[in-house]
Amino acid sequence: MGTATSTKQKTAAGPGMNSKAAAEISAELRPLLADVFALYLKTKNFHWHMRGSHFRDYHLLLDEQADQIFAITDAIAERARKIGGATLHSISDVSKYQRLTDNNQEDVSPSAMLEELCRDNQQLTEFLRSAHEICAGHNDFATTSLIEVWIDEAERRTWFLSETIRPD
What we know:
Structural class: mainly alpha
Number of strands: 0
CATH architecture: Up-down Bundle
Strand content: under 5%
Number of helices: 6
Helix content: over 70%
Order of helices and strands: HHHHHH
Radius of gyration: 19 Å
CATH topology: Ferritin
């Protein structure tokens, strides 16, 4: 019995995804994962350092959002690995690949925290849309389906933050 040859290389993602597609998708998921970790840590940073008359509400909002952000990290990394790609290995990898900026200031006002997180979630949504486009171009339905949920979640976080900082 002979072996069939195929023009498409099989990857861990199964038949139909060639090595070029897997490499391009993995290359998009790595910085996306770094951005998600950076946003998670910034959200926790602001959660920990929140103060003021709306402390409890903002503190709880940011804790809820941080949990949601952290929840997608494993799915991003595992998706990259499923298709045969590599993912992040360390905190230095996060800083190497992240596109969102850190905030190491000692004193940030509550309104500035919320405004910054709103902008970062908007930027993350743009990164997710870009990743979706690349995955869709390779007919990677599994990754595009995941990303669609993450876009919705990021838009919801942005909405909550923008309504919170909106003047009365």
